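Sync notes, pocket subgroup
Present: LS, DG
LS reminded everyone that the earlier model was apo-only. Rerun requested with zinc ion included. Inputs:
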Amino acid sequence: MQNIKMATKGASENVELGFLEETHPDLLRSHYFPSKVGGKPSWLSLTQLPVEVNCKVCGKSAIFLLQVYSPDEKVSSAFHRTIFVFVCRNPGCSIRNSNINFMVFRSQLPRQNDFYSPDPPNENVKTDGPVPDAALCRVCGALGPKQCAKCHLASYCSKDHQVIDWKNGHKAMCLANDKTGKTDVKGVLFPELELITESEEFDDVNSDDESDTKGENEKWQEYQDFLKSDKAGSLIPDTAAKSELEKMATAENMDDKIFRKFKERIKTNPEQVLRYHKGGQPLWVSMNHIPSETDIPACSCGAKRQFEFQVMPQMLSHLQVDQLGDSLDWGTLCIYTCSNSCQIGNSYQPEFIWKQDYAAEEQ
Ligand SMILES: [Zn+2]
Ligand SMILES: [Zn+2]
Ligand SMILES: [Zn+2]
Ligand SMILES: [Zn+2]
């Protein structure tokens, strides 16, 4: 049954779907090379952790959203390779169709590296594994260069996280000079879950063929150009305005079509929270705010960045943001990374994220 499905046109298209599963948290530590959502980051390189994981809007600490383990077999320095995504949870920092409150980093290591055994870990024998030798923030797991002035045992990324920890348990720990107590502050970190992947299989009866898609891409581009020209709100001769309005009407219809296509494609696997398709095309939720090639900056090594994976809106329901009244929201988040997986040693290389929200009518 499965083979028959796989054999049909478009059955896989090399898209790997991500789903969330509960697992023992010990299996999500760095030396198991996990893909996961929430909790603290399980850093791959254990030195040179990113120093600036701050929101570009409010300046406060961004919180770990997810990491995807995705080695690049073609590159020996990327025998291990993990992409990390961070987001600021402050509702005021979420801006429509803007990536400003997100951060992405790539870390990669050769098989022979400074931290891990060249042999695969044994999941049946749980070990603590290596951890960064730098102090980490007790609240969020990012670098913690600041220390509690009283006990000098607790480290923090920021004053904010120190205050949160103080109110949520460190006060007692501090007075007792207890180094062991852990912090689990509700509402700061996202719930921790394992991200597992499976090849996509879907019933493609209703999907469009390639040529149709290409035509649509060109139309999106035209529409984008129209929006960028910003004629919609300016005074233009009647006839021109009329034809622009006609274009808008067509655009709206097309947008319905994109959104319909999006819903159609995910229907078979409605719980998917991530789509991994390195070098492929994202599945857009709207025809608005689709990047052109020039919108995706090249890597600092000079190589182009290519699409690697997208985070789906279904992810939001697992993050428990609604209960908190947060306005953290997206249609889809598309991650673009260096197409060469260039050598970066033990450092964390910033990569690129593109946020697309739903078209206004679907909100
Ligand atoms: Zn912010
Ligand atoms: Zn912190
Ligand atoms: Zn203290
Ligand atoms: Zn590069």
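DG: The pocket of zinc ion (ligand 4) is lined by residues 299, 301, 303, 338, 340, 342 (CB under 6 Å).
LS: The first strand starts at residue 16 and ends at 21.
Action: DG to write up.
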